[in-house]
Amino acid sequence: MTDQHSPQPVRRIVTGHNDDGRSIIVDDGDSPNVFASEDITGFGAVVPWLTEPGDVSNLGNDDAAPADAAIPMYPKAGGTVFRIASFPPDDAYSADAASSMFGSFDGEHARDAAGDDASDRHFWFHRTDSLDYAIVLEGEIWLLTDEDETLVRPGEVVIQRGTSHAWSNRSDQICRMAFVLIGALPMTPGQP
């Protein structure tokens, strides 16, 4: 059972191999790694899986995202994070909560957005060193970039390529999104 602060549970089915090399279901239940903001009702995320940089191995049946795993905001180059995030309407964020929200993910902050006026446009502006595949599952959300904005609805996808951006939920409902983040090389200042 979840309270108003917890994101909707995500059933996670993980496959693996038994000692004879035959495929099995290792885990079938709610994803244990859950973040729920105590300050912002409805803001949170579930991380079903992640990988470290380097070659990915399917050997063993260890859980890559147990309840106590420290999940970074974005992975190092070559690593991945699979996250289901819940974004409440923008008016759910207090000024204090909005200014500290990036510290919620293992104390790690997203790279500052390019340009001094980005945070004046929207508190959620940030940039990460990652290639992100984002899919809206429920609700709707506005994607803001330095120069543009567009409404993204259920079933639509965003390919976010290390750009300064923000997610603005201008509706009165929570928006749920699935993200696959792939760690990328950092962009250097002045790079287009």
Brief synopsis:
The chain has 192 residues and is mainly β.
Task: Explain what you see.
Mean pLDDT is 86; it is low at 102-115. Strands 3-4-5-11-6-9 form a six-stranded antiparallel beta sheet, with no helix packed on it. A three-stranded antiparallel beta sheet has the order 8-7-10, with no helix packed on it. It has 192 residues and is mostly beta strands. The relative contact order is 0.18. The longest helix has 6 residues, at 95-100. The chain is globular, with a radius of gyration of 17 Å. It has two helices and eleven strands, in the order βββββααββββββ.
The helix-and-strand class reads mainly beta
Mean pLDDT: 86
Q: Unreliable stretches, pLDDT < 50, 5 or more residues?
A: 102-115
Amount of beta strand:
35-45%
Cα gyration radius (Å): 17 Å
Helical fraction: under 10%
Order of helices and strands: EEEEEHHEEEEEE
Helical region count?
A: 2
Largest sheet, strands/sense/barrel: 6 strands, antiparallel
Overall form: globular
Number of strands: 11
CA-CA gap between termini: 47 Å
How are strands sequenced across the largest beta sheet? 3-4-5-11-6-9
